[in-house]
Design a protein that fits this description.
mainly alpha, 52% helix, globular
């Protein structure tokens, strides 16, 4: 579990430091976007009051979203404790948990998740923004799908026959 906690801490700190640098040091705001490597990478201020892409943003309680994120983190921790996993799966679980808790901290501090990354390419203008925590959450979840073992069976990927 040590590997899980280390990767969670790294994900959490990298997200919070990146937000501080972009918003407070670089001064990115609603009125001051920064083109880093246009159109591929831009910093655009965003307040996500829902889940991914702002879904469930209108009228959803901040505390409900915090509770859901904490329940997911607790479930992943329980699964990792109950069904020991390999090193890659532990790192992935830590990335997911660290990213989720970084977004929880945003919700507690601001009432929303602070987003700033915008990526577009190939003539497609992407209107959505995300943050470093979202990258860790997504990568961690995908990693668990591919590298996580089923409930102690030792098998990865496909479900057991007859299940």
């Amino acid at each position: 579990m040590k590997l899980l906690w280390i990767s969670a801490a790294i994900a959490f700190v990298l997200d919070q430091v990146s937000k501080y640098l972009v918003i407070h040091v670089m001064g990115v705001s609603q009125f001051k976007p920064v083109d880093v490597l246009p159109p591929i990478l831009n910093f655009r201020y965003g307040e996500n009051r829902g889940i991914n892409f702002g879904l469930l943003g209108e009228g959803t309680s901040v505390w409900l979203l915090i509770a859901i994120a904490c329940a997911i983190c607790a479930s992943v921790l329980w699964w990792m404790w109950r069904h020991p996993q390999g090193a890659i799966a532990r790192i992935c679980a830590g990335m997911l948990i660290g990213g989720a808790l970084a977004n929880v901290l945003d919700r507690v501090l601001y009432g929303f998740v602070l987003d700033f990354l915008n990526m577009s390419c190939c003539g497609i203008d992407n209107p959505f923004v995300f943050n470093v925590a979202d990258i860790f959450i997504f990568a961690g979840a995908i990693g668990l799908v591919f590298f996580g073992k089923e409930g102690g069976s030792g098998k990865t990927g496909a479900r057991k026959k007859g299940a």
